Amino acid sequence: MLEAVREGGLLPPGKPLVAMLSGGRDSTCLVDLAARLVGAELVTAVHVNYRLREGADEDEAFCERLGERLGVRIEVERPRRPAGPGNLQSWARDERYASAARLALAAGARIASGHTADDQVETILYRLASSPSRRALLGMKPRDGSLVRPLLSFTREETTAYCEERGLGWRDDPTNEGTGYARNRVRNDLLPAFAEIHPAAARNVLRTAELLRDEAEVLDALVDAELDGSNGSGGTISLQRLGELQGAMRRLVVQRLADRAAGRPVPGAANHADEVAGLRRTGTAMLDLGGGVRAVVERGILHAER
């Protein structure tokens, strides 16, 4: 595993790194690998203690001890959940990534997460069930901007074996076994059912996602060719040309414009492609694409903006 991650180039030696550390086997494996490959003095592990369940303080203490053992700096964040309703998992995820981003920005560092092949399969199946789009089948990228996922080709079984061989303990989150969250039901119910259908089901899902990501690069190049100034902040295309495109390419172009304007994926923007193509070509026309983004046509030229 050490050599494979080294050859993958996502944890280059001598480059500062912020690793997200929950205390579980995957993130523990990640931090140990990072210390060995990057250099312990250049690694900062960020642990977020949400203080939402029994054992949270013990998780924090474990991470502190791990940092001392490996010689890496540990930063602990203790956010307070805002009052009122809201998606608890989304809030926790946002806090985790925001904490890592603040540290990485200050140090000019990459951010590393411990997502594994098991997480990839769970993510694809969850997104496929909850979000009808091509993006759902692409899964997570090994590198996404400043975020890297060095363990994405390894299974949870392999990260467990790594920790055992290295004499590293870890903390298990008991909430992962519950049925209250959809992701848990995918992991504990859906994946075993897939394995009963075919023993290579998980590998087949991963291979399909890999092939689709390769094909997505071809589609992305075609979209780039259609957009004027594709290296700019927004990109433009004439409304006439958009109307001439085949339906699938039209959707891809509108989705790209929306994503680029928002600086993140805008779910469902492509669904408005035909409406956008039907906007008037004289003067100025606008259409809400969702996600805080709108399509704007000025003198027959289309762009998207926040």
User: CATH class of the largest domain, anyone?
Assistant: Alpha Beta
Percentage beta strand: 5-15%
N- and C-termini, Cα separation: 43 Å
Shape: globular
Elements, N to C (H/E): HEHEHEHEHHEEHHHEHHHEEE
Please identify the structural class as seen in this structure.
alpha/beta
Strand order of the largest sheet: 3-2-1-4-6-5
Number of β-strand runs: 10
Mean pLDDT across residues: 91
Quote the CATH topology of the largest domain.
Rossmann fold
Low-confidence stretches: 230-234
Largest sheet: 6 strands, mixed
In the CATH hierarchy, what is the architecture of the largest domain at level 2? Answer: 3-Layer(aba) Sandwich
| CATH homology superfamily of the largest domain | HUPs
